[in-house]
Prior knowledge:
By secondary structure, the chain is an all-alpha fold. The chain has one domain. Helix content is 77%, strand content 0%. Helix 1 packs antiparallel against helix 3, helix 3 packs antiparallel against helix 5 and helix 5 packs antiparallel against helix 6.
Amino acid sequence: MNFAHLHLIINHIPLIGIPVALLFLAHGLWTKNASTQKFSLLVLFGLAAMVLPVYLTGEPAEEVVEHLPGVAESFIESHEDVAKFSLILTLATGALAFIALWFQKNESRRRTLNFGVMGIATLALLSLAYTANLGGKIRHTELRSGDAAQADGAPAAEGKGGDDD
């Protein structure tokens, strides 16, 4: 297993885990179940911590794939730029989840903080999904919809991608 393989495996954990944790948090808020809310916050905190190894394996993964045929540097750079933003949002989710866990005894603060966690976690999830989409375009030319050939300097193939299909 190399870093590209590891990066591909672990990047799915927060991407799948955050929506599940958000569903549990929403259910806990709806039913006013403090235990479910606390569980969700703990999971979100753990998932936020999981983003660090995902981010840190990105650069070594780039070293593995950057010279492979069909890999365009422009797709890697776009993925990298958005990944930094996703990292910040996800770490902020974890930090706010930790603060919310600290105030679980205070009913009014708990509810407000938990809704705040839901908001920032939703933004982090959207950013992570966009980052993953850009990452997929690095090696999956079928996701590029006509952009692939243009990224390498060649004209897009006629009848491929776009709105004509």
